[in-house]
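Ticket 4471: requesting a sanity check on a complex prediction with magnesium ion. Repro inputs:
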Amino acid sequence: MSNIFEDERLFANRRKNHIFKDKKPLDHRFLPDKLVHRDDQIRKIAKYWVDVLDDVTPSNVTLYGKTGTGKTAASKFAREQLIEAANNENIFIKIEYIRCTDYTTEYQVIAQLCNRLGRDVPNRGWTKAEVVKAFRDLFRTNAFGKKLHLIVILDEIDILLSKDGDGILYTLTRTDNVAVLSISNYLDFKNLITPRVTSSLNDKEIIFPPYGAGQLSDILTERAMLSFHDDILNDDVIPLCSAMAAKEEGDARYALDLLKNAGELAFDENSEKVTSEHVIRAKDRIEHNKITEIISTLPLQQQRVLEAILLLTKKGDEITSGKLYEEYTEISKKDSVTYRRIFDFINELELLGIISTNTISRGRGRGRTNIIKLQCDEQLLETALYSI
Ligand SMILES: Nc1ncnc2c1ncn2[C@@H]1O[C@H](COP(=O)(O)OP(=O)(O)O)[C@@H](O)[C@H]1O
Ligand SMILES: [Mg+2]
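Returned structure tokens:
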């Protein structure tokens, strides 16, 4: 058999792509040359980091904002600018970007930093104290023959803090010549930090508000010029993507996803132009992929709970936990989990945004009941459940 990817590529090239010039600029990881509407935030980072050019450890900084508000992009942009400025000034500085979904414990982060700075540390096996010592020695001894400044960008830091505590911040903020830039999706990130760390962190906060439709439109226009051939997008496409993403909490990533998926649909159909109708279907496609992905990773019993919720919803019944359990045991027959366990499942499904629950009081003496409601499209859920 010939290679399926080579085949696919040949096939795609042969059908010369009349829609896309280059899809890369629509990818989340693409870093554009300029970030529109984030001047304030980037200048603030610069204001806090500039000290390092005078050989002074800069302030710790925290960026807050919902998903897709440009936090990661802004931090990487500031990083490139600082590296450029430091080269001109002959200051020895490293800015290391760590995504805490990839390195989820203090040990892993510190070991990774050591490795990137040229000090080999095994990914496991040492004690935490040994790793921390190896890291600190890089700054204490004259390891590089000159003074090293380090700025660590900890992206998605909430994950690390909730899993492994705030030891990582303690260690970094108590090492000479090290500054931290934390990026958090949650405003209550400080709840994950203990007082011993709060004082040494002493961070400057920068807020990234959600984008409005007009701002999203500017972002998309820039990217569309790089990605699409001329005159391929109907005039209403970018405004529609922007309006839809503005509703989804001003998420630029979602706006880019809509635009990309709309283009892909137009390409698949050999359509001459990308239209607003493609955008609307792109929305379904994205949601469908998201739900399918979530559901396919759920444990079997939880899928069955979801199936029970779907069946009850279709019957038009009000769904109480008791009723749900009945329906669920119908489906799973002998290998059911306990009633108690169902509550955990309900909680998890709610966290994933697939269902919502509402506690109501039935009146005096009759206690309280949980009413469960499906939060995603029935049809989508049904297709997803039965395609697994
Ligand atoms: N102001 C902006 N100008 C251009 N592109 C942006 C801007 N803000 C966000 N983006 C793009 O939107 C996507 C999501 O941004 P990102 O920085 O990953 O958001 P966050 O880290 O806040 O979730 C990325 O592809 C990014 O390049
Ligand atoms: Mg990010």
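Notes from triage: The two ends are 27 Å apart (CA to CA). Leaving this open until the requester confirms.
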